[in-house]
What does this fold into?
Amino acid sequence: MKALSILLLGTLLFGSTPAAQQPGVVDLVFINGNIYTANDRQPHAEAVAVRGDRIVFVGSNAGVKRYQGRRTRVIDLHGATVLPGLTDAHCHLIGIGQREMTLNLEGITTLEDFLAKVKARVDQAKAGEWITGRGWIETFWKPPVFPTRQDLDKIAPNNPVFLTRADGHGGVANSAALKIGGITKETKDPFGGQILRDKESGEAVGMLLDTAQGLVARHIPPRTEGDVEQAVILGVKRSIELGWTQVQDAGGSFRDVDVFKKLYAEGKIKIRIYKAIHGPGSDSQRLLREGPIIGAFGNRLSVRTIKVVSDGALGSRGAALLAPYSDASDSKGFLRVKAEDLQPMLRESLRKGIQVETHAIGDYANRFTLDEYEKALKAVPAAKRKIRNPRWRDEHTQIVDRSDLSRYAKLGIIPSMQPSHAIGDLHFAPARLGLARLAGAYAWQTLIKSGAIIPGGSDAPVERGEPMIEFYAAVARKDMKGFSGAGWHPEEAVTRDQALRMFTIWAAYAAFEENVRGSIEVGKLADLTVLSADIMKIPEMDILKTHCVMTVIGGEVVYGATQGSGSAASDMTHLRAYRWLGARL
Ligand SMILES: [Zn+2]
It folds into this structure.
């Protein structure tokens, strides 16, 4: 008994990994922080010591002193709030960068402004040159209707135009682009897509949903390798400035992976990327054949996931529903994948230890995903799997029949959700779905109470991709003006403590990384996000005014303070300046 209590005391004093906790001078020390660790055994701290890329001490200002030597860089946080390095558990990194590079149509509130912005680009283009862009959402326009090819023909008679809706599940083409795509009255809808048509004439009106976009998009000149590299660099820069330390990149190809590898090798990107590869298809076959990449480039790059897309999006009525749309009685949306194509790949993934994540928005798509996962899990029992608990994910989990909500925890399926979808959709989802179906929509608290964990993401560039918007959306469940309509189920909002987990330890779990990342704990990678205000305590609306002042990845300050000067005094000056800016914003 005595031996046990001494052992326990030892653990309390020195942490669970005594070797890492041993004193000795370190490279980097943070003091005077308001540190939320996301570690239940030690939820709050003042100081952190970092050796190499790892955390070796978490505790008090007094306790960290023994790690300080003459060459230790000391960053005085002056009370700033520190969180475990934030993770965006679902986004599209190259798309984020491309949004910065092409015509960005975000935030436009009228059809007139939309056309004016496109026209300005057309006026600079040569005749025949493609005009592409992304980011528009018509649901805020008056009236909230899709733009048409005729609208675009007026401003772009001589250039093919294709403009993707923010959600990526629809795009509008002008007549020149439809012609290049060979789309006529006779063209049939491809599987998993729809050509929207004039009810009387049957002519295409310009809007192409989901896979139908490919009819036009495949004629757009491909991006060069240089363009993709540039997009990744811009996407990474924006992400670390916002405080993200890892992005879980929801889909793509091995071509993307090659670009990431090149940029890591050249030292041009520092963020951690957890990359999924689209399937079923040849790229996912390659992943199954070659096996996963885990923790390459100093725990920065992992590729161990296949991304499936099972339906479209709610805004464009491509989400697959069990019953027709409330505002379009002739449509239930559509699935984009067939069970017979999916099932062999799912089973092989279990045998090979590959994670699967499936985009599912509508209640039918979510049930389909749960059903297909369950079938595969039954067909390949735990003993025959390379990884017993494969941690398969359901990306979005937006509209779920109430009777299906408890199945996630039961099956060990991870609902990976993006809080900003709920606060963007609240303006049109009631019309699309009716009030009754909202009972299982964005049902965060019900899912958590049932035993599921929810990794939190932004789905940028579908949404803005800012951690403070996501955190606010999760805890407030109101739009950015503080509005929430009738039937929007405020009880499904999460607590701040749950929100913190969504973007840290739960996101790490969803990537099999909860032992190396996701909390501020001795032995884990030193990833930290420093904020201008205490988002665990300030009034809800003030979360939106909060911003990142410093991002640390693997013990390296990659954004904020003074990058690499080593002078603690100037670090303090900078941090004070940032905090002053924060106070004024
Ligand atoms: Zn997405």
